[in-house]
Specification:
Layout lengths: L31 H12 L4 E5 L6 H12 L3 E5 L7 H12 L18 H14 L4 E6 L7 H13 L4 E7 L7 H6 L3 E4 L1 H4 L3 H11 L6 H11 L3 H11 L9 H9 L5 H10 L6 H10 L7 H8 L4 H10 L4 E3 L7 E3 L1 H14 L1 H17 L3 H10 L3 H17 L3 H10 L2 H5 L2 H14 L2 H14 L7 H19 L3 H14 L5 H17 L3 H17 L3 H18 L2 H17 L6 H16 L3 H17 L3 H17 L3 H14 L10 H11 L4 H7 L9 H16 L3 H17 L3 H17 L3 H15 L6 H4 L3 H7 L7 H20 L25 H11 L4 H8 L3 H15 L4 H10 L5
Parallel strand pairs: 1-4, 1-5, 2-3, 3-4
Antiparallel strand pairs: 6-7
Helix pairs in contact: 1-2, 3-4, 4-5, 8-9, 14-15, 14-17, 16-17, 17-18, 18-19, 19-20, 20-22, 22-23, 22-24, 24-25, 24-26, 25-26, 26-27, 26-28, 27-28, 28-29, 28-30, 29-30, 30-31, 30-32, 31-32, 32-33, 32-34, 34-36, 36-37, 36-38, 37-38, 38-39, 43-45, 44-45
């Protein structure tokens, strides 16, 4: 193809390999979304396709994949520094385009003495006469610095015929009128943030292409550390391909956690490909400003002593030197995490004294300008304990109100013990954060030290701190179910805290809600949680607002009010998104609570998505309670979906995190722990070892009671089960804990059935169905397996329709398990139905409306927006439609509805 390529008599020979199109790899990660954006250039009027991103971003791989797919005639030039001369550049241009059969002589020697402008003009004329589209790719255009070449290419862009599609890969933006092209819609551009791998793409790359066997958590950690930078992921993967550490081992996890820009492969790559290629002043600026998490012109000038820092930052951004803008005004920037780690390691190695000096300057500047969090980080970096302690004390409450508990905990753990113990405020916040991660022995120590330190405080600060201390102690008391002590501490806190301190009074009101909940007074608890939410809103305390909504949702679930609980969770998740609080552990807890409701409605796919999302957030935030609840509920959903391996792993993880004596500040953790024991073969021993062997019908003991009843039922201790249920059920009914009452009725029905008392079994089942129908309970019946299905098949009268819906859910679960090649959980007998049978229960007006939307292909989210309903409400209606039509998918629903004339 390139046999005729030559150079002029006074020119160096042309390298034919520079004109080769890199082949698309067969083992690549498909970039479908990016390919679609490139294809838009072929359909539109784009004059330029610009791929401008740092080294190692996958620019060349993406273009080669795109070219292989669209199969258009393509000319490709891989540029290098020697092409920085117009005549040589023109020769390569002619040689490449001569292969496209557009009438241009492919012998580059013919163009050795023709000016580049003349060549471009002839090229444009030849292309204008061709009928077919073609692509010209200039790879690594950043090596070109000659103004004449830039001007010639600008001429080509401005006057190119529509048949020519010009694509450029570069590490720095070329000096062309990009803004003008962008305004005209003639520019298709992909930047570093566009090219980075998503989490799914990172998983495909590391596990399928590089042959690793990394967990989702490990991949997420590497994706975060590399910011999706493809070369960074590849370097990490190469390091992990060594024989040790073994996948899944502690060393393996530690390596992933520690992977940074100081790793030798990253150092070698960035040193050779990036830093060494910069002028000395730029290298110095990069190294010295690398200590900053966020960079601005004035801050950089303050620490480096160099002027014109803003201009320097803008130039670095244009050069794609791993500098990312953080706002639209380009006032703040950050370095790519791996690049920053690399630069910091190099700075500490080469100039340790300068490292110290730079951090001191940064801490002083940040404190003067009110950036206290950044000032703390710099003070801690150089072990300035006095300054760090003073700053942390000033900012601790603001960080706590934002819910950044792990950041606050990290600061407090870095302070000297002597300075920490002497400050009651810091002791209180330390106790709070330690409680979240489950270090309860130190919690009590810090609370005692805070109390001792109050003697040295003057009023009114002493009263405020005393109120904060009482509020925090109340949380610890609630973990042990000490209701009277919680109420006493709440009263003390309300007396000490000023009326205007809405931040901590919202905490106290939330504690009062927990006290009511522990007493079984769910209505009073819900009212208190609602009031705590409103107080938190007034105080602009997003963290406590979300905590209050989470506990309100959990209380609503206990009440059996599933629809309000789902709406509470959805509202709270939207609130978290609006405030950028998606990573707070309480937001993870909200996703898990919503997943619990969706699970009960048998929306298993949606349920597992929310639970996995919440569990990942809980893991990143190191919240013990969120992880235990999430793992337990993940195991239940996986079990229902027939994913036995995932269920076993989730239950095992929960058991490791939740020893029988361990508690957390999440009241729901008590329930999750008891639910977890239900799936263990030694459930009875776990209940006994917990020290919570039920003695009285209290709320805190109720979940353990139910686990005990199931353990006895499995051992045919039927009389003991009935006796226990008769003791605990009246208290649950009186307190309005209908969710628990339904479960008790279900257990009673199964116990009577096991005792061959069918009449009593059906009577108990009908009570359960009557209570469960308004809220749409499903899994509470389906999880009981074939014995429950046999009972439901015998239900008659008004409850028969609901029983049939539940039986359809059994069949759906059986099909799901069968599709996975498992026997499922043994809970779903095969049932038959006739698709032509008429509806026993007609669709409501709202269900008919949603059915019509299903028929025209609207998504659940679109329906929710059109009908001004919560997404969970739409999903609930769809579930009802499926049950009434006796189908399991949208396609089946539409077909069934047409058979019945519902869409005519």
């Amino acid at each position: 193809m390139f046999a005729s390529v030559s150079s002029g008599p006074q020119s160096d020979p042309l390298l034919v390999t520079k004109l080769y199109i890199p082949p698309a790899r067969s083992d690549r990660v498909p970039r479908r979304a990016l390919i679609a954006r490139l294809n838009a250039a072929l359909r539109g009027d784009a004059a330029l396709i610009l791929l401008s991103a740092p080294v190692g971003s996958g620019k060349t791989s993406l273009l080669s994949e795109w070219i292989a797919q669209n199969k258009l005639p393509t000319a490709w030039i891989s540029l290098d520094e020697r092409d920085n001369e117009p005549a040589r550049f023109g020769q390569y241009l002619a040689a490449a385009l001569g292969t496209l059969e557009i009438g241009l002589d492919p012998d580059a020697g013919q163009w050795a003495f023709v000016s580049l402008d003349s060549l471009i003009t002839q090229l444009i004329n030849h292309l204008a006469e061709t009928a077919s589209d073609c692509v010209l790719v200039l790879e690594d255009y950043h090596v070109i610095i000659d103004p004449a070449i830039h001007e010639a290419m600008r001429l080509l862009i401005e006057h190119r015929p529509p048949q020519l599609h010009l694509a450029i890969t570069t590490r720095a933006d070329p000096p062309w009128p990009l803004a003008q092209l962008r305004t005209r819609g003639q520019l298709i551009e992909l930047r570093g943030h566009d090219l980075r791998f998503t989490l799914d793409e990172a998983q495909s790359f590391l596990n399928h292409i590089m042959g690793l066997d990394l967990s989702g958590e490990a991949i997420a950690a590497l994706e975060t550390k590399t910011d999706g930078w493809i070369a960074g992921l590849q370097l990490a993967g190469l390091a992990l391909q060594t024989p040790l550490p073994a996948p899944g081992s502690a060393d393996h996890a530690a390596f992933i956690q520690a992977f940074a820009g100081s790793h030798r492969r990253v150092v070698d790559y960035l040193a050779e490909q990036v830093l060494s290629r910069q002028p000395i002043p730029v290298q110095r600026f990069l190294l010295e400003t690398s200590i900053l998490e966020r960079l601005s012109g004035p801050l950089c000038e303050a620490i480096t002593g160099q002027g014109q820092a803003q201009a320097r930052l803008e130039a670095l951004e244009r050069a794609n030197l791993f500098l990312l803008p953080q706002d639209d005004q380009r006032r703040w920037y950050r370095y790519h995490p791996l690049f920053a780690d690399f630069l910091r390691a190099r700075l500490r190695e080469l100039q340790p004294e300068r490292w110290q000096e730079l951090h001191h300057r940064a801490a002083e500047w940040c404190e003067r300008h009110g950036l206290l969090a950044q000032a703390v980080d710099h003070a801690l970096a150089v072990e300035d304990a006095e300054q760090a302690t003073r700053l942390v004390e000033q900012i601790a409450e603001a960080i706590w109100r934002r819910g950044e508990m792990m950041r606050l905990l990290g600061w407090l753990e870095a302070l000297p013990e002597s300075l920490l113990r002497a400050r009651p405020r810091l002791c209180i916040f330390h106790a709070w954060t330690l409680n979240i991660v489950g270090r309860y022995d130190v919690v009590q120590q810090r609370l005692q030290e805070a109390e001792l330190g109050l003697a040295d405080c003057a009023e009114p600060e002493r009263a405020t701190l005393r109120g904060m201390l009482a509020a925090t102690c109340a949380i610890v008391a609630a973990m042990d179910g000490q209701t009277d002590q919680v109420k006493a501490l709440v009263q003390q806190a309300l007396e000490d805290l000023p009326e205007t301190n809405l931040v901590w009074r919202s905490v106290v009101t939330r504690n009062l809600g927990n006290a009511y909940l522990l007493d079984g007074q769910t209505e009073a608890a819900c009212a208190a949680f609602t009031e705590a939410f409103h107080l938190s809103e007034q105080a602009d305390n997003t963290y406590m607002a979300l905590v209050s909504l989470y506990e309100l949702a959990e209380a609503q679930i206990v009440q059996g009010r599933l629809q309000p609980a789902a709406q509470t969770c959805e509202s709270a998740i939207r609130l978290a998104e609006a405030h950028g609080a998606q990573e707070l552990t309480v937001t993870g807890a909200l996703h898990i609570a919503l997943g619990e409701v969706l699970y009960e409605w048998n929306a298993l796919d949606e349920s597992i998505q929310h639970i996995q999302t919440g569990l990942e957030v809980g893991r990143r935030g190191q919240s013990l309670g969120v992880q235990v609840c999430g793992s337990t509920r993940l195991g239940r959903v996986a079990r229902a979906r027939g994913e036995t391996q995932l269920a076993a792993e989730a239950f095992q993880q929960a058991m490791q995190l939740a020893p029988v004596q361990r508690r957390t500040s999440f009241v729901a953790h008590h329930d999750a722990q008891a639910q977890l024991w239900r799936y263990q073969p030694n459930a009875l021993q776990l209940v006994q070892a917990s020290g919570r062997w039920p003695q009285s019908p209290t709320y805190m003991a109720e979940a353990v009671h139910l686990t005990l009843a199931r353990a006895w039922l499995d051992r045919d201790r039927l009389a003991d089960v009935i006796q226990l249920l008769n003791i605990i059920r009246p208290a649950a009914e009186a307190a309005g804990r209908l969710g628990r009452v339904i479960e008790m009725c279900v257990l009673e029905a199964l116990t009577h059935q096991a005792n061959d008392d069918l009449a009593s079994a059906l009577a108990a089942l009908e009570q359960a169905l009557t209570l469960a129908a308004p809220a749409g309970y499903t899994r509470i019946f389906v999880d009981e397996g074939e014995p429950m299905a046999a009972l439901l098949a015998q239900v008659t009268g008004p409850l028969r329709s609901y029983a049939r819906q539940l039986l359809a859910a059994f069949e759906q679960g059986d099909k799901r398990a069968g599709a996975r090649g498992h026997e499922g959980d043994g809970s779903a007998p095969r049932l038959s139905h006739s698709p032509a049978a008429p509806l026993i229960e007609p669709l409501s007006d709202r269900e008919q409306e949603i059915l019509r939307f299903i028929a025209v292909g609207l998504s659940s989210q679109d329906m929710a927006q059109r009908l001004v309903l919560a997404l969970s409400t739409v999903q609930w209606h769809i579930k009802n439609i499926y049950s009434k039509l006796d189908v399991h998918s949208r396609t089946q629903a539409v077909a069934r509805a047409r058979e019945l004339g519902l869409l005519n």
